[in-house]
What does this fold into?
Amino acid sequence: MAKGYNQNQERVQLLGLLGKPLARRAGRRCELCETSGELRPFEIPPEPAEPDLDQLLLLCQTCAEQIRDPRKIQPERWRCLETAIWSTQPATQVVAVRLLRRLVPLTPWAGEVLEMIDLDPEIENWASKQN
It folds into this structure.
């Protein structure tokens, strides 16, 4: 058990080292809904062996919680994805696509947004990968 704990602590430390560049990139705002306040790094599954800035998002607690637990999703809260999907950050696009796909059965606007976008094949491939 100590080995797993130590590995987790190492990962947390490595994520901490990426905090400042991540906050700078995000403009100290949630990279999905653009709120400010308490923000935390969120690793996009599947997680790489070593934390990587390109596979991190800076998210507010509400966004992170609803991503982690699909039962908590509030479809109208995610209208922000209509803007987030056009981000220049591939990580933001990937999470936006994944969330929009999750929202399609819940609300018609999610499917409409997905129909409007033409994803780069790399982004599409990454968005299709899960844990």
